[in-house]
Amino acid sequence: MKYVSTRGQAPSLDFQGVTLAGLASDGGLYVPESWPQFSHDEIAAMAGLPYARLAQKIMQPYVGDCLTPERLLELCEQAYGRFAHAAVTPLKQLDETQWVLELFHGPTLAFKDVALQLLGLLFEEFLARPREDGGDEHITIVGATSGDTGSAAIDAVAGRAKVDIFMLHPHGRVSDVQRRQMTTVIAPNVHNIAIDGSFDDAQAMVKRMFNDSAMTGRFGIAAVNSINWARLMAQVVYYFYAALQLGAPHRKVAFSVPTGNFGDVFAGYVAAKMGLPIERLIVATNVNDILHRALSAGDYSASTVTPTAAPSMDIQVSSNFERLLFDGCGRDASALAAQMKHFEVTKAMQLTNAQRESAAALFSSARADAGDMANAMRWAFEATGEVLDPHTAIGLHAARAAEGIPAGVPIVTLATAHPAKFVDAVERATGVRPGLPARVGDLFEREERCDRLPGNYEAVAAYVAERATPKHG
Ligand SMILES: Cc1ncc(COP(=O)(O)O)c(C=O)c1O
Ligand SMILES: N[C@@H](CCOP(=O)(O)O)C(=O)O
């Protein structure tokens, strides 16, 4: 399998290359040059497979000969062996139509663990391979987080040889649990930075570093955000896992996905491209609703980020939307590059008719304000006894409001975080104060380590350059 950039000017890479590269050198995002497909019978034969086996089957076409099937399976078993639930991502029924897929049973209590536990192992596997010149390769991960990617990535790479991680979060805009899950990991290769600004500011600095030749010349800058293809690939698996349990491929399933950077829901799109019969993907946003405006009216224009009780979705510039727009314009990389450059300058763009029509075939969208979110949490608790986190509640709000889904089609809301990560919002809505699972341990007693920097690229680049290990040993 080869990977190409959405902007057409970067070299194509194999899976190992794309995993270590992160953002493409032309500023675009890597995507497979074509979507592998499974037949109806091949999907039917996957029913009942344990999670790790299913993961190996779904991901092998993307990995190609960079890992043997046996080795990929070993890595999946190792990654998913750390989850606290035997089903890895268990499915729960709320009522006749509504289901939730619990994606928060990993070490840091959010769906990011599903991909990042594997990505940590993939980094180690590929960095252990000898380089042609006999030298040693070292990577410097630079990431941006609105709360959950940071802790999951740090857990996945803390203490690993040949890897440094620098994680930027917006100061004061993540929950206490999210912050402590990052800042209390004291390891020589882990560097937490709180920046003044929003997640979008942090993400823009990360992307800029990939295009800063002074930095990329010295350091092997790598990504753990969903700009890294391997993140999305691993997230495709749970769409198959849930749908197979609900009768796929003989029955269609709809998914409602709380969305910020468009990575999780793009993985659903990939599952559909691979042959999974998905009735609809519902993109659920909070009041930072650029994606809802884009999908419902073609208007992709960013405004200032509003802090909400679902902070991980406080995002206005959704990286992975570019991957959808690429398919939506018939993979015309030069047209897309011009469209994205225009957006980068003006922070606004209109989707073309072709992009709108191709998205409308699978996606719909909804926006939830604070009241909608609290009502969904309350309904879930009072009607079903389930305590949901604010992000999941936004997904459930959109699932319950969805129109035009045929009777008999189950709607699965992705439960993206454990409610204990956002205790105050959950308590306000339900009166229940969920406790942290024992596996998180003494989070509130541990020492925190984090530096604060201005929201300024030069300051961040200098900080990284002072502490990172050069790429070739
Ligand atoms: C708990 C939670 N829900 C939803 C999202 C949105 O996911 P995505 O950015 O992949 O759209 C995030 C952040 O990514 C998150 O941390
Ligand atoms: N919500 C995310 C933001 C980063 O998104 P990613 O999926 O691109 O890593 C977070 O919690 O950090």
UniProtKB/TrEMBL annotation:
One of its GO terms (molecular function) is threonine synthase activity. Pathway: Amino-acid biosynthesis; L-threonine biosynthesis; L-threonine from L-aspartate: step 5/5. Its EC number is 4.2.3.1. Keywords: Amino-acid biosynthesis, Lyase, Pyridoxal phosphate, Threonine biosynthesis. Residues 89-331 form the Tryptophan synthase beta chain-like PALP domain. Its cofactor is pyridoxal 5'-phosphate. It is an enzyme of class 4 (lyase). SUPFAM superfamilies: Tryptophan synthase beta subunit-like PLP-dependent enzymes. It catalyses: O-phospho-L-homoserine + H2O = L-threonine + phosphate. It holds the Pfam family Thr_synth_N. The modification N6-(pyridoxal phosphate)lysine is found at K112. Residues 2-80 form the Threonine synthase N-terminal domain. GO terms for biological process: threonine biosynthetic process. The keyword Heme does not apply. Belongs to the threonine synthase family. PANTHER family: THREONINE SYNTHASE FAMILY MEMBER, THREONINE SYNTHASE-LIKE 2. This is Threonine synthase. It comes from Novosphingobium aromaticivorans (strain ATCC 700278 / DSM 12444 / CCUG 56034 / CIP 105152 / NBRC 16084 / F199).
